[in-house]
Amino acid sequence: METARDLSIIILAVFAIIQALAITALAVALFLLVRTLQRKVMPVLDRVPPLIDQVPPILETAQRSVQAVERAAHRVEVAAAISSEKVVKPIITIASFFAGARATVQALAAVITGGQSDGQEASQRRTEGEEKGTPVP
Predict the structure, then answer these.
(1) What is the torsion angle, in degrees rounded to the nearest 10, for the CA atoms of residue 91, residue 93, residue 95 and residue 98?
(2) What are the boundaries of each domain within the chain?
């Protein structure tokens, strides 16, 4: 019985020594890791505060740029509206007036000559072509 007791004490002592060695190895590894982090990471972290100080001026510049773009877009919108009102609309009005005058002259010419005008002939050809199923230009 004493032999079993002595053998148990020896086995427990061996396990305690192995456990102490494992804990020591982990402590050394943790120490080396912390030291490596201090050498590698701390210089990077030391550069962060100056970078953070640069962010507000960059944001202000971006905000001013966005406002300038908004103003430019508004100016383009106003210029397009003015162009439409002052330039394009009168041109369309004049073009439609001349188109109406041309149609009137053609209709009068058809009445005077007793025939059909060019516009009526083209319309009639289109209608006849559609009835026959052939495309007419």
Answers:
(1) -140
(2) 25-132
List, in sequence order, the alpha helices (H) in 1-137: 2-83, 89-113, 118-132
Per-residue pLDDT of the chain (137 residues; tens, 9 = 90+): 788 888 999 999 999 999 999 999 999 999 999 999 888 888 888 887 887 888 888 889 999 999 999 999 999 998 888 887 888 888 888 989 999 999 999 989 888 887 654 555 555 555 565 555 555 45
CA 50 → CA 20, 40, 96, distances in Å?
Answer: 45, 18, 67
Which residue matches tokens 């430019």? 72
